Amino acid sequence: MGGVTGSTVGALPVGLDDNLGWLLAQVCRAHGSVLERAVAGIPHGLRGFQALCGAVHESARNQAQLGRQLDIDRTVMVYLVDDLVAAGLVERTMDPADRRNKLIRGTEAGRARLEETRAAILAAEATVLAPLDPEDQERFREMLRTVVAYNLNLVAETE
Question: Which residue in 69, 61, 53, 55 sits closest to 101, CA to CA?
Fold first, then answer.
């Protein structure tokens, strides 16, 4: 007895309409598709954008820590940062507190590219979230932030 359920936006397959994993996967697929175009000018696409964002905002002390934040293998992280350095978007600098440590920081060109890309991403995300009114879009983002923060804390407690 298959079929679809009605919704305000269209029909969803019965049995999947309340399946969180399937729903999240559909949103992620749509988001990834529009984001791919928005980050096309950055080496390594979305992963490169995330690393650039971390470097500009100094969210991590060093390359290894940034790789852990982004869940990127350390060997892959080296190539990703090398390519961002070659593109002039980030730089490796000596850590004054520990000369063995290299800090990853955004350059002026990296900051400018980040802002351009953010604008493109917001436009792309508006397409994905178009069925929601602006207040619901912000509420959806806030709920996601809450769920992610909670789960990041759970992971940190178990490590």
Answer: 61
The amino acid at 34: V
pLDDT digits (tens, 9 = 90+) for 99-132: 888 899 999 999 999 999 999 999 999 999 999 9
CA angle 129, 53, 113 (to 5 degrees): 85
Whole-model pTM? 0.75
Kindly write down the DSSP assignment for every residue of the chain, as one continuous string: ---EE--SS--EETTTTT-HHHHHHHHHHHHHHHHHHHTTTSTTHHHHHHHHHHHHHT-SSSHHHHHHHHT--HHHHHHHHHHHHHTTSEEEEEETTEEEEEEEEE-HHHHHHHHHHHHHHHHHHHHHTTTS-HHHHHHHHHHHHHHHHHHHHHHHHH-
Mean pLDDT of 3-15: 65
Question: In this structure, how many other beta carbons lie within 10 angstroms of the beta carbon of residue 129?
Answer: 18
